[in-house]
Structures are given as structure tokens and as C-alpha cells.
Amino acid sequence: MIIELQQTTASKVAQALLHGRQVAGSPAMGMVMTMVVVCEEKDFPAALDNATQAALEHPARIIFVVRRRGRKAQLNAEVRLGDGSPGEVVIFWVSGPVADHSAGVVLPLLLPDAPVIVWWPGRAPDVPATDQIGQLGTRRITDSATAGELLKRVEQTRTGDSDLAWTRLTTWRALLAAALDQYPAQVTAATVTASRNSASGGLLAAWLRNRLGVPVELRTGGRRGLSDARLVTAAGDVALTRIDESTGTYRVPGQPQREVALRRREVKELLAEELRRLDPDEVYAEVVNTLLELQDSPAATGSGRPATEPVERTARTKAPTRKTAVRKAPAQKTTAKKAPAKKATGKKTAAKKTAAKKTTAKKAPAKKTPTKRATGSRKTTSAASSTRSRTR
Predict the structure, then answer these.
(1) Which domain of life is it from (predicted)?
(2) I need a surface site. Which of 3, 133, 206, 239 has the fewest CB within 10 A?
(3) Residue-number span of the structural domain to which 287 is assigned
């Protein structure tokens, strides 16, 4: 069932959803989440297919915000019930000023007491967590492979953000971890080969650096995405190399080479995997922090040159702290200006003490007077005694 609404409002769309469920004979809602998809008109067909396929595993109310070019304010909607999807699909076509305030259209249609996932199939905002629609989501999904500028993306990562470029590494990470389980040798270095500006290549290099604590070199090679990952040991390399779009070779020292499944997964599969876990990805957060620490090295930029030593990276990351210390210098100058006030107070106090001493010095003669009187009385007493003795 498809219901089209022209120049509509969010309340009319909610009424259309209720009416559609009643007509379909299923007034109860069995959806587990709300997925909000923000895209351009050219990306809408592919985004619709990927979102509806992911909803087969996770029944959801899918709300599309499709931005059209134009200055005129328009808000057209389309409600789809059934149509090969276990949930509900609401499509908003927005243009003009309405596109800048689309969060007010989406908010009334969010399912109560259910997680909200926001997905940008194409170019995402610079800071998804502060975007007007991104603030509504408990999970925000972007794709650095399509948006580009991996370093700028990870610098703005917040809790609840995830990247499909990281999801593409699930098979690679599982195979490399299994290799070390089979051959538990000491890894001294690692090498990752990927196409130029590959987001997945930079994330895999950061993951190996974070987990193994060894120097990682990111080389440029291959036509698309990751093509090779190697762990250097004393007995030989643990190597995982892609052959084609679906298979790869797997080599461990002391064992014969064998082929493994290394298929490039489609976006709908990556999206379905992300929806299986809605809590924050702690491993991804650690990898992002490592990538930020190495952002001035080729391992993060993908220039294909050897990575610098960890000590140099740490020293560079501490540079902002020194700048902060320089900025705080004016506060010390302010304290220096207050020093004369303390000296003035000291002078006044010293003056008071000096005056007090002078006052005490002036009162000194008063103490001498009793001494003279005492001396005179003693002389009178001695004279009287001598007179008495003579009379006798």
C-alpha cells in the first residue's frame, strides 16, 4: 500500500500510518527500532533498497528525509506499508527552508521507547552528533568510504558514532586474530596495503598498532580498498592477501597456503551487521583514539611511507599542552601586578609598627619616675636611722 501526501504535515502522516495499518488488518506495531535515513535525491534509490533489506532482519519504521534542490519550501510525503518490508516506510521529500528544519518533521514519528538509528548513505555532516537529526539518534552511522576525509571524520567522533568503513574490516580482523591463535609468535612489525585514501586501510593499520603495539606501515597499492595485510615474525610473515572480489590467500609460517572466503560485502549486509549491536563499540573507540595519535604519520594519512616511531608521535601529540601553558602566561602577569599592593600593605604595616615603637619609647620616662621615688625614699629611711642612732 502506498499513500501519497502533497504539502503535508507530520500529523497528517501519522494519521495516514494509522489508517494504513487498520486497512491492512494489523493495528499493532511489531517494530523494534526507528531508522532515519538522510540522503540526497540521487542516493535515494540505493538507500531505499539497502534500508529495506536490512529491515528484513530488524523490523523497523524507516523514515527517509530526501533533500531536493530548490528554494521553494515543500514537504511532500509518501507512506508505504507492506511492499516487501516487514515494517513501515515513510518518505519525506523536502526542499527550501523545510530542509533546514527537517528534525521537526521527523520527531513526531519516532517510535516510543525504541532506539533511533540515523544513517547517512552519502556525505554526512561534519559532526553527526551535533546535527539536528543526529541529536535524535542513539546510534549514528556514516561511511568514510563515500564521505572521504577519514581524519576529519574521526576527529569529530562521539559516543554512539560508527563507520561502515570499520564494519568492512570484520572478516579481515577475524582472520588475522585466528592466525595468531594458530601461530602464537612474537609480532615485530606489520604492513597494510590498500588503495590510496582508503578509509578501511587506515583503520586496519590503527587497529594493528593498538592491539599489537608494533610499528605499522601503510602502503599504497591495489585498485580498490584493502588488498594485503602482513604480520612480521621471526619465522616468516603471517599474510592475508585478496585475490579477487570473493576470495583471498591465507599464509601462516610452517603451514601450506590456502584460500579463504574474503568477499566484499554489500552495504545492506554492513548495515544489518551494525544494527545487530546498538551499544557503543568500545574497540572502534580505541582505534579512533589510536588513529588520532598517529594522525601526523603515514599510517593515518595513507601516504605509503614508513610510519614514524611511537616516541616521535607521542612527543608531537604533547605539543598542544605546551601551547596551553603559553596561553596561561597572562595570568602570571596579573599576579605580578598585584605584587605592589602587597608591598604597599607591608609598608603601611611597618609604618604602624614603627609608630607603635615610638609611642612606647615616649612612655619610657614614665617608668623611670617610680625608680627615682624609690631611691629617694630609701635615702630618707637611712637618714632617719642614723639620727636615731645618734640620739641613743
Answers:
(1) Bacteria
(2) 3
(3) 170-266+280-325
Q: Are residues 108 and 236 in the same domain?
A: no
**Whether residues 49 and 195 fall in one domain:** no
pLDDT band of 228, cuts 50, 70, 90:
very high
Write down which residue in 127, 142, 157 finishes a domain: 142
383 is a domain residue? no
pLDDT, one tens digit per residue, over 148-184 is 677 788 888 899 999 999 999 999 999 999 998 888 8
**Nearest-CA neighbor of 106 among 30, 35, 2?**
35
Distance separating alpha carbons of residues 207 and 170, to the nearest angstrom:
12
Mark whether 194 and 103 lie in a shared domain: no
Residue 360 lies in a domain: no
Distance CA(159)–CA(88), nearest Å, equals: 28
Coil, helix or strand at residue 389:
helix
User: What is the side-by-side order of every strand in the sheet holding 88-95?
Assistant: 2-5, 74-81, 88-95, 60-67, 33-40, 116-119, 139-142, 161-163
Q: Do 188 and 317 sit in the same domain of this protein? A: yes
Q: What is the pTM assigned to this prediction?
A: 0.73
Domain total in the chain: 2
Rounded Cα–Cα distance for residues 207 and 10 (Å): 44
Condensed to tens digits (0 to 9), the pLDDT of residues 229-265 reads 999 999 899 999 999 999 999 999 888 999 999 999 9
Residues 202 and 135 in one domain: no
Separation between Cα atoms, residue 275 and residue 229, nearest integer Å: 27
Cβ contact 227:194 at 8 Å: yes
